[in-house]
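Translate structure to sequence.
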């Protein structure tokens, strides 16, 4: 894993990848790197016309479950139910209070609920890659992967499974973001546990980018009328996107990756650097909390969990 970089991805010829949030930031960088490695790449966005050249656009608003269902059906049809990697990358951070069309708080809806529903709906395609002799996910090749992008912020304000949408609590943007990123890690862990208990080929892996120069901070500050601060803050405190994207690329492609791993930067405090093992908070390692979140997520989204047991 020492100084692993994007060229170490090797050839991804014959493999099909879906990257959410491929129109900017980490998602765009990941989609472009995977495309250069030879993969067929589908990329989602609320404005899919903004995905990079060569990436197949898919319209998706993760904060709208009808949109999630449409996108999942489209991906399954276009890939003939053969998907080697699902990279759950898209997200919003620190936005003012907003209720989605489904009645959910926007950050938990976008960062966790939409991605969980998309993952469950695409499991047949991930299984298809595992069984297809002609794909990189064949029985003799790499297992299909679900890569869930979390954040150092998961260590923040905890997760209230009984009040995901701040109906009983005062809404705080940073706490809402933190709980959505903790939810990402808990979902990945429970998904991996269920995949292993069923003896399935796909694996679930998590990653985080440390502190990276993306527009997440800019979008958050612009929503508060402070957009002018984003550029100087990013220049002073963050690493470039080309480095920040490495943990999720490693999680998606490295041959040594095993289900359940969590990958982040190896530098001081996991803030910057090349990919290496990352640390989870105590809450992110709580299997009981993961199971409760799984059940609540199914109830909230109305999507049948897969695997179900």
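Result:
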């Amino acid at each position: 894993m020492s100084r692993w970089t994007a060229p170490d991805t090797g050839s991804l010829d014959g493999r099909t990848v879906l990257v959410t949030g491929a129109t900017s930031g980490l998602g765009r960088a990941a989609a472009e790197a995977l495309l250069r490695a030879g993969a067929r790449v589908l990329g989602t966005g609320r404005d899919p016309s903004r995905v990079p050249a060569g990436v197949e656009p898919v319209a998706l608003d993760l904060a709208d479950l009808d949109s999630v269902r449409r996108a999942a059906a489209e991906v399954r049809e276009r890939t003939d139910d053969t998907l080697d990697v699902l990279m759950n990358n898209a997200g919003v951070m620190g936005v003012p209070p907003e209720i989605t069309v489904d009645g959910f708080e926007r950050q938990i809806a976008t960062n966790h609920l939409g991605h969980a529903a998309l993952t469950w709906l695409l499991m047949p395609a991930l299984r298809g890659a595992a069984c297809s002799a002609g794909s990189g996910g064949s029985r003799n090749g790499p297992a299909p992967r679900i890569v869930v992008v979390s954040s150092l912020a998961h260590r923040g304000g905890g997760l209230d499974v009984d009040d995901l949408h701040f109906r009983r609590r005062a809404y705080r943007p940073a706490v809402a973001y933190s709980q959505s990123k903790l939810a990402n890690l808990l979902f990945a862990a429970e998904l991996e546990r269920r995949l292993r208990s069923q003896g399935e080929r796909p694996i679930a892996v998590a990653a985080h980018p440390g502190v990276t120069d993306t527009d997440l901070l800019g979008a958050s500050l612009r929503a508060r009328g402070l957009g002018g601060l984003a550029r100087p803050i990013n220049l002073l405190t963050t690493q470039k996107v080309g480095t920040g994207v490495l943990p999720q690329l490693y999680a998606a492609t490295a041959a040594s990756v095993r289900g359940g791993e969590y990958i982040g930067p190896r530098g001081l405090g996991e803030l910057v650097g090349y990919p290496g093992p990352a640390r989870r908070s105590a809450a992110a390692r709580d299997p009981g909390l993961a199971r409760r979140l799984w059940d609540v997520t199914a109830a909230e989204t109305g999507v049948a969990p897969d695997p179900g047991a």
